[in-house]
Each structure stands twice: as C-alpha cells, then as structure tokens.
Write a structure and sequence with these properties.
alpha+beta; two-stranded antiparallel ribbon; 13 strands; 17% helix; 24% strand; single-stranded DNA endodeoxyribonuclease activity; signal
Length: 253
C-alpha cells in the first residue's frame, strides 16, 4: 500500500533499507503480532483494528476500557484505541489512582519500568487518558506503562490536556459511538530515557472518528514545551504522515 517516508512513525524500528520499500500493511490481528484483539474488538470501528507495518516486537493488549498495540522496540504503544459515547463519558468521574506499573504481560526486555521515568525530565503521558476511565478498575489499568510515552510535562498538562477535554466534550454531544486512536510519532534525532531506552516521541496524534456521521479528524502536536493547540489535520493526512491505515475499509467523510 503506502511507502513509509523517512520520517514516518516508528522508522527507527525498521532497517534503513526497508524505509522506502512498499511493505504491505497487515491488520493488527495478523500473525506478525503477538496476541490479537479478539477479546476487545469493541474499541475499533466496525470491530477492525488498524492496518500496520509488520514490525518486530508488536504485542496486542486488551484492557477494560482501551486496547494497546505495544512496540517492544520503542517500549511504548504504537497506538491506543478507545470507544467513547455519552454514557461512558458521564461515568468517567473516578478518582485518579496514580499507581503507575509495568505490565507483566510484556516481556521484561520489551517494556518500560518505573525507574526509566525517574529524573528523566518527562512525565508519564497517558495515551488513553485517566479522565476517560468509567470504572475504578479501568482507572487503575490506565496507569500501565504500556499506555504511556515520555511526554513533555508542560505539553501534557497544557495543550494536550485541552485536546483530551475537547474530545470528551465531543463524545458527550455525539449521537453514538466515537472511536479514538492515540499514539506517538518518532521523527528526527533519536532520544530515549532510562536504562531500558524508552523512546521519546517527537509528536503525538489523536484521531477522532464519529461512527454516526463518518467524520474523522486528527490532532497532531509536537511533544515539546512550546506546543500549542492547532487546527486538526484530515484523516488522509494522518495516514500519509504515519503510514498506518487506522480505519481500514471505512469511507471517511
């Protein structure tokens, strides 16, 4: 399908000789991925996960309120998928647990540990926000490091938090389900934190798809203190920048 450009998502996880190759995208339930999303298809529009490049060390993880495709090469999620609607947003008033933990389902060599973030200068940035969680158990699960990236402290608490709040407001007004996919992008010079070399993303994205109207848009923001909320980009532009078909088989307006 699409070639991944040199600055594409997770480029560092591929040999340079493959960066320009036209590698077929595979559904995130393919054999190249450890596990699948069979236990949590409801987090994906039409029950179909995104189509991704067949990278090594990809593992599918299901949680109560979100799903993670984890990349063991970067020690971060490749994407995190959620389903929101009015009822779920209205239930999302749980107290934050703030008990971060490493997910034991991931091999030790493929995961971040709590020590990696200490004195790193970065926050443990949720991809599926704690503020979206509808139950105490879902809230606790959202603090898995598999749901985190090293994120600018100012961005996390400022412009990115605004995007998360705006997304909840939209889901509360929507007439049905809204599907959200959030993740990191790695461009430019490689930077990591901790003994396990947890990759620091250059940018973050949040895709919003309204299943009733078939409209989709994406927020794209630098993982930096100077980040600001800007006009969303189109779904097609997000696919071009990342090389991922987030909504395979869906005609997006």
């Amino acid at each position: 399908m699409r070639a991944i450009a040199a600055a594409a998502l997770l480029a560092a996880a591929l040999p340079s000789s493959l960066l320009q190759a036209k590698t077929p995208l595979l559904p995130a339930t393919a054999a190249a991925i450890s596990g699948d999303f069979a236990e949590c298809p409801s987090f994906f529009a039409n029950g179909t996960p995104p189509a991704v490049q067949p990278l090594p060390r990809l593992r599918a993880l299901c949680y109560d309120a979100f799903a993670v495709l984890h990349n063991g090469s970067t020690k971060t999620p490749m994407f995190v998928a959620q389903r929101l609607n009015r009822a779920l947003v209205e239930d999302a008033d749980e107290k934050r647990s703030n008990r971060f933990y490493a997910d034991a389902r991931l091999p030790r060599a493929e995961r971040a540990e709590l020590e990696d973030y200490k004195r790193s200068g970065y926050s443990r940035g949720h991809m599926a926000p704690a503020g979206d969680m509808p139950t105490p158990q879902a809230m606790a699960q959202s603090f898995s490091l598999a749901n985190m990236v090293p994120q600018s402290i100012e961005q996390n608490g400022g412009p990115w938090a605004r995007i998360e709040q705006d997304t909840r407001r939209y889901a509360r007004r929507a007439q049905g389900d809204v599907f959200i996919i959030t993740g990191p992008v790695y461009q430019g010079e490689e930077h990591s934190v901790g003994a396990n070399h947890v990759r620091v993303p250059s940018h973050l994205f949040k895709l919003v798809y309204d299943a009733q109207t078939h409209r989709a848009w994406a927020h794209w923001q630098a993982n930096a203190d100077h980040a600001t909320v800007t006009r969303p980009i189109s779904y097609q532009e997000l696919v071009r920048r990342t090389g991922i078909e987030f909504l395979p088989g869906i005609q997006v307006r």
